[in-house]
Write a structure and sequence with these properties.
Elements lengths: L1 E10 L2 E4 L2 E5 L4 E5 L6 H9 L6 E5 L4 E4 L11 H9 L3 H10 L15 H14 L4 E5 L7 H16 L4 E6 L2 H7 L2 E6 L4 E4 L8
Parallel strand pairs: 4-8, 4-9, 6-7, 7-8
Antiparallel strand pairs: 1-2, 1-3, 1-5, 9-10
Helix pairs in contact: 2-4, 3-4, 4-5
């Protein structure tokens, strides 16, 4: 169980987050919606342990994977190395990870030899190859066209179905939230607070 209990977060004299409480069970995906600049990425960084300068407490497991807005790949290392160097996965595990995301046969390719969609798939492969207990996703399908975004959402759902991972998705897209998450929350106000919301039907 992931437990997030934030009493407040500020940057200097500027309050960003107010009272934010959230629990995510193993196997559950929770989405947090909100406009740009509201504090979604700040919440994500706190949840993942990247920001500890806040008032409150977070309970999280040791094994955490993150998927960012842009693929954070090592440009001078091959696709296979981008998985093995970060996760410690064996050659066989790397091959399996690439196969699951449709990148079989591309282990020796450098990131700039892959399309944007393939780099996004590689980022997902690396995240899941680490066998995380907690997966944090920050606008993972931003800048993708609708067709490619839908393909990536379907792939993510397939990968999540095979693992019991607590997942936190932050996004501005109601479509992504409705497809991936069982519970959806809205970050709003100044400082921002969290409220559970029900999305309109027909978004998926």
């Amino acid at each position: 169980m992931i437990g997030i209990d934030i009493k407040g977060k500020s940057y200097g004299d500027q309050p960003v987050l107010g009272n934010v409480r959230l629990e995510i069970a193993s196997g559950e995906c929770v989405a947090v919606l909100g406009p740009s600049g509201i504090g979604k990425t700040t919440l994500l960084r706190i949840a993942a342990g990247l920001d500890t300068d806040f008032d409150g407490h977070v309970t999280r497991p040791e094994r955490i994977s993150m998927v960012f807005q842009e693929p954070t790949l090592l440009p001078w290392r091959s696709a296979g190395d981008n998985i093995s160097l970060i996760t410690g996965a064996s050659d066989a595990a790397v091959e399996e990870a690439l196969l699951r995301v449709g990148l079989d046969g591309k282990a020796d390719r450098l990131p700039d030899q892959l399309s944007l969609g393939q780099r996004r798939r590689l980022s997902l492969a690396r995240a899941f190859a680490a066998k995380p207990q907690f997966l944090v996703m920050d606008e993972p399908f931003a800048s993708l066209d609708k067709g490619l975004a839908n393909d990536m959402i379907a792939l993510t759902l397939e990968l999540l179905a095979d693992a019991s991972i607590a997942t936190l998705l932050v996004t501005h897209s109601e479509h992504e939230a409705s497809r991936l998450a069982g519970s959806v929350y809205l970050l709003h106000g100044q400082p921002a607070n969290l409220a559970q919301t029900r999305l309109p039907s027909g978004l998926s």
